[in-house]
C-alpha cells in the first residue's frame, strides 16, 4: 500500500464553485474547522462561466415582484416536478443571499436609484436577474473567494477526491490524490459536503469544462446515497455552432434578455410557432426544441443552428451589457455582433438531477454526507430557469454549510474509524492503468462515450434509440475495464481521465436508464414516442437511482406533497 | 487538411527539452485545441492546465512563440506556419511539469490584502458611475499573465518585495469601491511595493481582459502614496495630528 498524508477537519467541502465556497464560509462561521478541496485552482470552477445573472425577487426594477411569483415561476419552469420546499426556500432566501454578497464586496450593475439592477430572463415573470454585464458568475466566485480566504478555511487546490470512506452508515473521510505530485491524501472529517457541479462532459457538445465529470454524483452513489431525476439534462438553446473549435461554448441567455431575436434561414421569427406569448424569453427546454426542430426540418443556418441577432439595440449598449459576448464572437468566430447575427444551437449545459437531499439541510440519505448546487437534485424539477442556478448555489450552499456544521458538532472525532483495507484496494485500482499492458486509451474511451450520449440521449429521445444507446453504453463500460496510460503520476491528465471515467460511466448509465423509463415528455426530457406530459402517472414521481450490489437500481418514489397554502398560489392562476 | 508543427516544452523545473508534434489544423482552431489533440493522440501525459476553453477562467496561460497568452484564445491562423509554433510554460513561476507552473505564491499575496469592509448597517446604495472604476478591475480572470511579464517578478524575481500588477489592481479595486472603509496605504507602500513599478506597461499589453492596469490602477495608487507620504504639506499636517 502506498503511503498517504492525512488532514483532519470537522467539515470537508468537495468542490470550490459557488456552492462549495458558500458552504465552506458558512460552516466556518459556525465554528467548524473546514477544508475546501478543489480539482482546479481556486476561482476557476465552472461558476465563472455563468454569465447572465442571478435570480432573486428583490423588486428593484419590478416593484410587483415577490417570492411567491418567483416560487411559481420556478415550479412552472420545472414542470411541477421540483421539490416544492426547495423551490420555496430558494425564492424566499435568495434576496438576502445577494444583499450579503454585496456586503462582501460584489459590485452589481446599478439602477438609477443606486440599487442593484435586474434584467429579464426566460420564464421569469418580472425583471429579476441581478447581474454584472455578462460576467455575473465571475463576480460571484471572486467575491466568495475573497470572503473564503479570509474566513480561516484551509484550501487544498488541484486535489481530486476519488472515494468516500464510511464507518457503518456514516461518512468519515474522503480519499484522493494531488494532481501536481500524484500522491495520495486522506481527509478525515465528521461531515462531507459535495459541491462538485455537473456531468456535461458525458456529451460531445457541452458548455461545461473538463472538470464536469459527475464526480460528486458518483461518489454519493458509491457511498450508498440516492440520485433523483437523472433523465433531466438541460440543453441550453444557445451555444456557439461555428467554428468547430468552439462548438458548444455558451452564448448567454442575457442576449435574449436584452432583446435578442431568433430567426431561421428563411428569416422567420420561428418562436411565434412554439411559444407566441413569451417568444425568445420562453424556457430553455422550449427554445432548445424549437431551434433543433427548425434545423432538422431544413430551416437551419449554414452551420446548423439558428440566427440570434442583438445588433438592433446598438453597439454602445452591447459593449456595456454584453461585452464578453462581443469579444467571444469577434475573437473566436470573426463575427461582429454589433453589426450582424450570431449562429447558435443547443449545447449540454446543466443537470437538474442529482443527489437526493433534505431541503432544509442538504443532507443526503447517507449520514454526514451533504450536497449543494448542481450536484444535488430536486430544486429545479424537470427544467431549470436561467438565473436560478447562481441563487441556488448561495441559498443551498449556505444551508448545507449550516447543516454540516451542526451535524459535525454532534460527532466525536474519536469515532471516525478509517477502513485501511478499502483504501488499499482503491489505491490498487487507481494505479492499475500504469501497469496494464494493451489496455484501452482513456481518451479514446471518453470520446466513444461522448458519441453514444450525444447520439442517443440528446434533445429528443425515442425508445428504440434509447435502448440501442444503453446497449452500446453497457458494452463500452464492459470493454473499458482495462485501461493503459503512459508517464508518471506527476500532473498526468491521462491518468486523471482514467480515474474520472469511473464517474462518467456511472452518471451516463443513470441518465440513460432514467431516460428510457420515463415514458412521457416533461421539461428537458422530450420523448418523440410520448410527446405529451402524462399528468396522471408521471407528474407524481421522481426517478430514484441507487446502487444494488454491482448493478444500478431504478425505482420511482412519490413527490413530496405540497401544503395547501402553496397549492392555493397556483389555483389563483386558473 | 492543413498541418502545423508544435514545439512543446516537456519536462520539469530541473530538466526539460522540446518535442515536436504534427497536428491537423481546422478552421478557427486555437492552440489549446492543438495541445489537447496531442494529449489524445500522442502523449497522454502532456501536462496542460485549462478549464473553460472560452477565455473566462484564466487557467491556460502559456508562452506561444515567445509571447505570453491564453492558449484557448490564440488562434492557430494568427501564427506563422512556416516554422514550428513554440509553446512554453510561463516563465515567472516554477515549472511543475510541461506547461503547468506553480502559481501558489499569487494566492498567498491575495490573502495578505485586507478584504472589503463596508460601514456597519449602511444600506448599499451606489451609483453606476461610481462602481464602474472598480468593475473594470473585477473583470480580472487571474490568468497571472501580468505577473508573468512584469520584469520585477520575471527578471528580478522580487517576490519578497512586490505584489505584482494583479494584486495592485486588487488593492485599487478595493480602494475605489464607493463603500470601502479600510486604508491600505501602508501595505501599498511597504509590502506591496508599489514604488517598484516603473510604468513600462508590459502588464497592460498582455491583459486578455484589456484592463488598463497601469493607467487606471497603478498610476493612481502611486499618486496616492506620494500624496500621503511625500507631499510636504500633508506630511506636516500628519505630524501635527500625531502630536
Number of helices of chain B: 10
C-alpha Rg of chain A (nearest Å): 23 Å
Strand content of chain A: 15-25%
Low-confidence stretches of chain A: none
Predict the CATH topology of the largest domain in chain B: Fumarate Reductase Iron-sulfur Protein, Chain B, domain 2
Question: Overall pLDDT of chain A, averaged?
Answer: 97
Mean pLDDT of chain B: 95
N/C terminus separation of chain B? 78 Å
The global form of chain A is: globular
Q: What is the total domain count of chain B?
A: 2
Could you state the CATH homologous superfamily of the largest domain in chain B?
Answer: Alpha-helical ferredoxin
Number of strands of chain B: 7
In the CATH scheme, the class of the largest domain in chain B would be Mainly Alpha
Describe the structure.
The complex is a heterodimer of chains A (574) and B (243). Chain A is α/β, with parallel strands linked by helices and 574 residues long. Among the domains of chain A are: 235-348, Succinate dehydrogenase/fumarate reductase flavoprotein, catalytic domain (Flavocytochrome C3, Chain A, domain 1, Alpha-Beta Complex), CATH 3.90.700.10; 420-558, Fumarate reductase/succinate dehydrogenase flavoprotein-like, C-terminal domain (Methane Monooxygenase Hydroxylase, Chain G, domain 1). Chain A is 36% helix and 18% strand. In chain A, strands 1, 2, 6, 7, 8, 9 and 16 form a seven-stranded mixed beta sheet that branches. In chain A, helix 1 links the parallel strand 1 and strand 2. In chain A, helix 1 runs parallel beside helix 11 (388-409), helix 2 (67-77) crosses helix 3 (84-103) and helix 5 (215-222) crosses helix 15. The longest helix of chain A has 25 residues, at 493-517. Chain B has two domains: 3-101, Beta-grasp domain (Ubiquitin-like (UB roll), Roll); 104-242, Alpha-helical ferredoxin (Fumarate Reductase Iron-sulfur Protein, Chain B, domain 2, Orthogonal Bundle), CATH 1.10.1060. Helices cover 36% and strands 14% of the residues of chain B. Chain B has ten helices and seven strands. In chain B, the strands form two sheets. Chain B has a five-stranded mixed beta sheet with strand order 2-1-5-3-4. Chain B starts with a strand and ends with a helix. At the A-B interface, helix 3, helix 4, helix 10, helix 13 and helix 15 of A face helix 1, helix 2 and helix 3 of B.
